[in-house]
Amino acid sequence: MTLYFASTTAPVNIATLKYWGKRDKDLNLPTNSSISVTLAQDDLRTLTSVCTGPELTDDKLVLNGKEESLASERTQNCLKDLRQLRKELENSDAKLPKFSEWKLTIVSENNFPTAAGLASSAAGFAALVVAIAKLYQLPQSLSEISKIARKGSGSACRSLFGGYVAWEMGNETDGSDSKAVEVAPMAHWPDMKAAILVVSASKKDTPSTSGMQLTVKTSDLFKERVRDVVPRRFEEMKKSIREKNWPLFAELTMKDSNSFHATCLDTFPPIFYMNDTSKKIIKLCHQINAFYNETVVAYTFDAGPNAVLYYLKENEHKLFAFIYRTFNKVSGWETKFSSDELAQFIKH
Ligand code: PMV
Questions:
Q1: Is the N or C terminus of the chain more exposed, i.e. has fewer CB atoms within 10 Å?
Q2: By residue range, what is the domain housing residue 96?
Q3: Which ipTM was obtained for this model?
Q4: What is the DSSP string of 114-169?
Q5: What is the CATH number of the domain that holds 259?
Q6: Lowest mean pLDDT: which of 104-108, 140-144, 158-162, 328-332?
Q7: Which burial class, exposed, middle or buried, applies to 144 when counting CB atoms under 10 A from its CB (0-12, 13-18, 19+)?
Q8: Residue 154 CA, closest ligand 1 atom number
């Protein structure tokens, strides 16, 4: 049997300027531009391998060792677009094997719990689309390919790049200008680090697609957010990243998380993604910054109660001294830090 292979990894990205609201549900076109920071590849990532060959009889997906359906419209849209681009390539060069007509086997694996309330669909769709684009040897740029990943899951388009990434909302109705672009590579600001506090590992109760549609329909606060607040922050945040202006980046990140959750509360009926522990973490972060009289930490929360904390490497001890005191009875700490490091945190 002749088979052709390709493999890739895609990282989880966490939005620091949130995407919330679609202007076109089928194409996943957003009502505002957004920005994310991609977590390091060896932290949270999806590894996807794909193969194709003339003898394969069905498209097949194996996710974390279990066969899953590929029937969803979003997945089918991605496969259709990728096959179309491959077909164009084959039409221009008759010697190329007819990958566009053959079935695919896709094997995907997350190195983190899929249902832990972390953004697994973004990394998943990004890895799927990039692996197939690699297999098909598509000449398009990552930004072009990001438009296909966007159709799978909006935020997936940002996981095609490492580091600091913007998703430009675009204006066109066909989505041809709604794509991810790099703001800066990870190496530009290597001192910035992220810690994830998993508050709850259960699945979110309002899926993002239905949640955002309800917000678009019912929230007055949302209208102001997309008209003025986010467009302004989009430019400010890109500038703060380029200039490595940590206090500004941190403030915008926290404010935008709060603004997003405020529009969720302003949705009717309201949507609550954060719980009491999430609120305790927000309070703690502000206490830490006030205690040191500097911005040590910035928090952000997606459509769930788990916190992502950003901080500069030089401030790690200042942050974890507090976090450790507050949450030291919670499991996970012992394995993440060495006893020397823990001793340092306690000393502070
Ligand atoms: O791409 P989706 O449909 O999973 O929506 C993501 C929404 C947020 O995570 C809350 C914000 C974002 O920009 O990632």
A1: N
A2: 4-185
A3: 0.98
A4: TTSSS-HHHHHHHHHHHHHHHHTT----HHHHHHHHHHH-GGGGGGGSSSEEEEE-
A5: 3.30.70.890
A6: 328-332
A7: middle
A8: 1
